[in-house]
Amino acid sequence: MARTGRAVIAHGQDFEIREYPVPDPEPNTVLLKQEMAGICGTDLHNWQKPGEKEKGETLPNGFQKEILLGHENVGVIEAIGTGVETDYVGQPIQEGDRIVFAPGVRGYDAYGFRTEPDNLPHFSGGFGDYIYLNYPNTCLLKTEVSPEVAVLTEPFTIGVHAAMRGGIKIGDTVVIQGSGAIGLVTLISAKISGAGKLIMVGGPKRRLELAKRMGADITINIDEVTSVEERTDLVKSHTTNGEGAEVVLECAGFLPATPEGLGYVRYGGTFVEVGHFVDMGSIDFNINQLLMRKNLRLEAVWGSTYEHFVRGLPILEKNEFPFADMVSHLLPLSRVREGFEALNGNYQLDDKTAIKIVLQADAD
User: Fold this and answer.
1) 50 has pLDDT over 90
2) Fewest Cβ atoms nearer than 10 Å: which of 3, 82, 89, 354?
3) Are 185 and 216 part of one and the same domain?
4) Average pLDDT score over residue span 268-290
5) CB neighbours of 310 closer than 8 A, spacing ≥ 6?
6) 164 and 295, same structural domain?
7) Rounded distance, CA 218 to CA 198, Å?
8) Which residues constitute the domain of residue 272?
9) Beta strand ranges found along the chain (DSSP E)
10) Could you tell me if residue 246 is inside a domain?
11) What is the pLDDT of residues 172-209, one digit of tens each?
């Protein structure tokens, strides 16, 4: 009897777990047995907005069609097609090696965002037992780091990209808005880039406690300091002469955070938009006051490139920060809805604060 494996299918706000036959790898392909897959904020924002289709609109966001989810992954090579000998940086690979990979594939739809799951090879999303990689066009990297750390590779590359785009210099005061997974990895990236003072604005409390352990000098809890004006004054009070931060990185992905963050930036400073990978709508802010009069540099990060994977993975492998502690929950595939609902609500699941929720294929 042919082997079968499970894959999580999303449609609207519904989830279904289907079984498909597991393919043998064709030449120049790799079959991974999944270990872990993180639930990303991009997945969440898309899941939050499927109701837009009822207005008759065609939008790029929202799971309008059946879609295979999961693009923050780590797995072990189950089988290798002929012609596959090395990873992206030339390391020899073989069955049993642990692999991380970039979801963006040159010439193909990205892993974790493909529709029509019933079409072969079925396993092109990370929320499942297997994932089928088209090797010549895939940046896959061998690693020996634990799966709890390796699963953070894709989000970590966003932090790497953000810090590089922000042009952080030694001694800069840097503010990170948002203390979720992207905010935390951006915090680390800013620290190793030379930031002299790191201010994290976010919540809940447990996330901010982890931010302190990751290197934050100052944390501001938005549940306790509820006024934008108060938060802005508090942030500036921790900057040189109260003038504001050299670099502010918006990682929360909520519309009001952007104009607030622009208010944190000093004259001649830099604002980097990191958190809006899904169209969440528009904002109204004073261009003259928040951009022009500050002589401000405005940057934005769209995903990450293969370069950021190559630069970021060695930092994870050094394991000089408590990366694995970011994984607050390991859930079986059957609890995928609970993971999404926790991130959509009060960040609580199983009486713990959610930081990074990870699906574990063999946990059922």
Assistant:
1) no
2) 82
3) yes
4) 92
5) 88, 89, 139, 141
6) yes
7) 6
8) 156-300
9) 4-11, 14-21, 29-38, 67-69, 72-80, 98-101, 113-115, 130-134, 140-142, 173-177, 197-202, 218-221, 245-250, 265-273, 297-300, 327-332, 348-349, 352-353, 356-360
10) yes
11) 999 999 999 999 999 999 999 999 999 999 999 999 99
Phi, psi of 321 (to 5 degrees): -120, 160
Cα→Cα distances 311→14, 267, 304, 327, Å? 37, 31, 11, 22
Average pLDDT, the chain: 92
Answer yes or no: is 111 within a domain: yes
Task: Give the integer Cα–Cα distance in Å for 70 and 91.
Answer: 25
Alpha carbons 48 and 25: distance in angstroms, whole number: 35
* Dist CA 339 CA 263 (whole Å): 33
Give the number of domains in the chain: 2
Under a CB-based contact definition with an 8 Å cutoff, are residues 114 and 67 in contact? yes
Q: Please tell me the distance from the alpha carbon of residue 309 to that of residue 150, in angstroms, as a whole number.
A: 11
272/326 same-domain check: no
What mean pLDDT do residues 20-39 have?
95
CATH code for position 326: 3.90.180.10
3-class SS of residue 323? helix
CA-based R_g, the chain, Å: 21
Do residues 99 and 77 touch, judged by C-beta distance below 8 A? yes
**What number of other Cβ atoms are within 10 A of residue 361's Cβ?**
24
215 and 248 in a common domain: yes
Task: Say whether both 83 and 35 belong to one domain.
Answer: yes
Q: Is this structure's pTM higher than 0.85?
A: yes
For residue 172, being part of any structural domain is answered with yes
Is 223 inside any structural domain? yes
